[in-house]
Amino acid sequence: MMAEIYGKKTGVCGGKGGSMHIADQEKGMLGANGIVGAGAPLAAGAALAAKLKGSQGVAVAFFGDGGSNEGAVFEAMNLASIMQLPCLFVAENNGYAEATGAGWSVACKDIAERAAGFGMPGVIVDGNDFFAVHEALGVAVERARQGDGPTLVEVKLSRFYGHFEGDAQTYRGADEVKNLRESADCLALFRQRCNAEGWLDAAQFERIDGEVAQLIEDAVRLAKTDPKPQAADLLSDVYVAYR
Q1: Are 151 and 88 within 8 A, CB to CB?
Q2: Are 86 and 163 part of one and the same domain?
C-alpha cells in the first residue's frame, strides 16, 4: 500500500491508483475513488455478488456526513434494502464536509434517521469509543450474514485535522480542536479503557507503538527505493485496447 501511495510499480495497483484510487482486491478492498459517495453503489454491487454466490461476505461502504447527501448513496441504500443485500452503510459524521458544517448541509438531526425511509435499521454509535464501534458493527455484520439485509450505522466522531494539508480551519472555533483532543481523543480513550481493565499497561503500549512505527518506517523506506512504472505499463490493466 505504501508503494502505491508513492506511485511505484510494486504498489497494489501498479502505481496507477495512488492514494485517491487505491484498491486491493485480495484484501477485499474494492477501492477508494475521487467521487463523493461513489463507494455506496460499489458496495451494493459487491453485496449482490456475495448473495448470489451464497458466501458469507458482507460489503461495507464508508462515507462522510457530506457524502451522505449524495443521490448515489440513497439509490444504493434503496436497492440494498429491496434486495435484502448483506451490506453496511457507515456514515462517518465528524461534523464537517470539507469546510461546511453538518448543520448547513444535513437537514435531519441524525443521519441514522434516514434509514427508516429505506426500511432498514439506523444505528448511532460513538465513533471515539473503539469498543462501541466494534460491538455495533459486529451486530450489523451478523444481521447481514443471517440474510436480514442492510444497516445504516452513523459513527459520530471528532475531526482533529483540516480537509487538506495546510487547511487553516478558520471555519472552526479557536479552541474547538483543543477541547476535542482533551475530551474525545479515541486513542487516549482506548488507552484509558485498556489500563482500567488491566488488559495493557504503559510499557506494553510503548512496545506496540514502537513496533508499529518501525513497520511504517520500513514500508516508507522500501517504497522510496522500489522501481517506478515504465512507459510500457501505461495501457496495461485497462478494459479497452486502444490502437
Answers
A1: yes
A2: yes
